[in-house]
């Protein structure tokens, strides 16, 4: 394969990963909105579309392994393929957690709700959304500096997680009937926290792409 053809193959891989990422972001936004607005129809749409992200991951994995086997890339080219291979796994997990949030939307329907807690969950979700968007932008532009900044913002997600946990406990004490819903709140903030972790992982792969060093941010 000529060098120009090989570079085209890498560009396709790069762009397909970004498409997968934007699909997962769309799924996440729908899932978050379904939970905040108690929209079961939207939650079911998220669940129904889960296979699309899984299919993206399988295609990317197959293409990445094919390039490694047939082209035996080295240096930066190999890092590009490994970055896609590894980061697509993080994206797939984001999609899984978005689906889990959608299931939580369905299970809380008709249960006693805690508006103050849901308001904070919406804020946490908005912060996670920004993290995902910026991590994908850092990837598409191979921006190591931005990736490091975004990864550092994961600390804010952890703060939301702890504060919402405490708030939920306090609100359940005032509203014992909301204990079932409280369980779902704990699960949703756990999903949000993990999605933030996966966005941070993507940032770590951006650093690897640029430097060849595998680090924890």
TrEMBL record:
Keywords from the UniProt entry: Cytoplasm, Phosphate transport, Transport
Domain PhoU: 20-104, 121-206
Location in the cell: Cytoplasm
Bilayer-spanning residue ranges: none
InterPro entries to which the protein is assigned, alphabetical: PhoU, PhoU-like_sf, PhoU_dom
A Pfam family matched in the record: PhoU
Signal peptide positions on this chain: none
Keyword Glycoprotein part of the UniProt annotation: no
Keyword Lipoprotein on entry: no
Main location: cytoplasm
Gene3D superfamilies: Phosphate transport system protein phou homolog 2, domain 2 (1.20.58.220)
Family per similarity comment: Belongs to the PhoU family.
Function: Plays a role in the regulation of phosphate uptake.
NCBIfam families: phoU_full (TIGR02135)
Binding partners and assembly: Homodimer.
UniProt-recorded name of the protein: Phosphate-specific transport system accessory protein PhoU
Organism name: Streptococcus porcorum
